[in-house]
């Protein structure tokens, strides 16, 4: 090892504090990056490292099924900065290791519109483009401007603009074609100075009414936070990674066929068909609130698999496979995991 490096390579580190499922697995090697000035040393380390490398933000979208026999790089680079503005828009850059909700609150407090519906999603700014995070009628692609990244193959720094990211539902080029090719360093969003509020998701108007508030950037952010707290488990109390599966998108004919058999099926319009509520499908198969040992299905949201304490990644994975099989058998619909299984 280079004795002058700013990057400390640790050995045999527990990853339990670094994944919201609370999996007790170990990393063969581990390092944490807190400032951008460490990047050259990090890139040098990665280019010489013999073994796989995994970047971690908040660890809120990963399921570890075994120890990681490679290098885990925890990204903790902080900073939020207004980099440009005009009459309509303000461009705000967040460093990859910045907490997503702190970034959203920075925008909300200044009445910059566009991210308020994405309040309280766990994780970091740098991970937000990976699966184009979304909630309550909004996805980051709606306000994403560009990101800075570095190629792990060539060491080349480059910018990605929205049309180069292939954003889709819980998907981007970084989750598929370019998976593992780039380290995202920072992300810049284009926020509205005259906010166009989105209250299309039914639960938001209902919550605003209960709060006695008119829709504003702040009140929507608060309403979304209230709704989320009421149904999603807090990972500091019960291990989980949010929705374990994606909502399946099916063609119109399949949708019509299932809907005729199950008129209560909740679904949303999607390109050439419909997006079905996977939580409902799973609940219909009798899984909601199920528990075997410490692995379970959340009692308030069947799309969320939970670790009550000492479940292993393989136990959670085995439960996920059973759920996939039963939904396939009952509805002939294939669920796909949203969570990155490692
Ligand atoms: P991690 O889990 O650390 O990493 C996710 C993936 O990105 C990994 O493959 C990792 O290697 C890669 N990665 C991370 N950082 C970088 C980087 N800088 N460069 C390159 N690759 C990187 N998601 C939604 O979309 N909507 C929701 O409403 C939502 N609700 C949730 C609620 C709960 C309670 C929980 C626990 C999760 C929820 N999620 C939701 C999932 C999760 O919060 C998001 O996917 C989030 O973006 C993950 O961020 P992270 O920093 O924790 O990523
Ligand atoms: N439903 C059930 N039973 C359940 C869960 C849900 O019948 O156990 C029904 C609800 O009654 C509702 C419908 O399914 O009619 C949709 O439920 P909800 O509004 O809770 O949203 P979701 O489709 O289950 C998605 C995202 C969430 C996001 C919310 C809010 C996916 C995979 N999940 O969940 O994202 O927060 O909408 O927009 O798209 C995540 O990605 O980790 C995540 C939490």
Number of domains: 3
Strands in their spatial order, largest beta sheet: 6-7-12-10-11
The whole-angstrom Rg is 21 Å
Mean pLDDT: 96
Percent range of helical residues: 10-25%
Strand content: 25-35%
Query: At the third CATH level, what is the topology name of the largest domain?
Result: Uridine Diphospho-n-acetylenolpyruvylglucosamine Reductase, domain 3
The low-pLDDT segments are: none
**What pattern of helices and strands is seen along the backbone?**
EEHEEEEEHEEEEEHHEEHEEHEEEHE
Number of extended strands = 20
General shape: globular
* CATH class descriptor name of the largest domain: Alpha Beta
Number of helices: 7
Cα distance spanning the termini: 27 Å
Tell me what the CATH architecture of the largest domain is: 2-Layer Sandwich
Describe this structure in a few short sentences:
23% of the residues lie in helices and 28% in strands.
Give your account of this protein's structure.
The chain has 342 residues and is an alpha+beta fold. The chain folds into three domains: 66 residues, Uridine Diphospho-n-acetylenolpyruvylglucosamine Reductase, domain 2, CATH 3.30.43; 151 residues, Uridine Diphospho-n-acetylenolpyruvylglucosamine Reductase, domain 3; 109 residues, Uridine Diphospho-n-acetylenolpyruvylglucosamine Reductase, domain 1, CATH 3.90.78. Strand 15 and strand 16 form a beta hairpin. The chain is globular and about 65 Å long. Uridine-diphosphate-2(N-acetylglucosaminyl) butyric acid binds next to strand 13 and helix 6.
């Amino acid at each position: 090892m280079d004795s002058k490096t700013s990057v400390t390579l640790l050995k045999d580190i527990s990853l339990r504090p670094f994944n919201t499922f609370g999996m007790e697995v170990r990393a063969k090697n581990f390092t944490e990056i807190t400032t951008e000035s460490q990047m050259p040393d990090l890139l040098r380390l990665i280019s010489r490292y013999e073994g796989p490398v995994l970047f971690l933000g908040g660890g809120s979208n990963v399921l570890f099924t075994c120890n990681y026999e490679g290098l885990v790089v925890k990204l903790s680079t902080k900073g939020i900065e207004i980099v440009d503005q005009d009459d309509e828009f303000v461009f705000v850059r967040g460093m990859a290791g910045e907490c997503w909700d702190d970034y959203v609150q920075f925008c909300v407090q200044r009445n910059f519109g566009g991210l308020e519906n994405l309040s309280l999603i766990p994780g970091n700014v740098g991970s937000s483009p990976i699966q184009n995070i979304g909630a309550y009628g909004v996805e980051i692609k709606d306000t994403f401007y560009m990101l800075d990244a570095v190629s792990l193959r060539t060491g080349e720094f480059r910018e990605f603009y929205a049309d180069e990211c292939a954003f889709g539902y819980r998907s981007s080029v970084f989750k598929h074609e370019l998976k593992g090719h780039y380290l995202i360093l920072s992300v810049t969003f284009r926020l509205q100075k005259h906010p166009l509020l989105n209250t299309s998701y039914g639960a938001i108007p209902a919550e605003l009414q209960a709060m006695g508030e008119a829709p504003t950037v702040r009140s929507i952010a608060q309403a979304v936070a209230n709704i989320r707290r009421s149904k999603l488990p807090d990972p500091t109390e019960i291990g989980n990674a949010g929705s374990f599966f994606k909502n399946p998108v099916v063609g119109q004919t399949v949708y019509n066929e299932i809907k005729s058999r199950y008129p209560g099926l909740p679904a949303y319009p999607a390109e050439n068909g419909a997006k079905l509520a996977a939580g409902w499908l799973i609940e219909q198969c009798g899984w909601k609130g199920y528990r075997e040992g410490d692995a379970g299905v959340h009692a308030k949201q069947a799309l969320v698999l939970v670790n009550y304490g000492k479940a292993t990644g393989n136990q959670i994975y085995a439960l996920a496979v059973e759920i996939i099989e039963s939904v396939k058998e009952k509805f002939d619909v294939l669920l796909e995991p949203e969570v990155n299984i490692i």
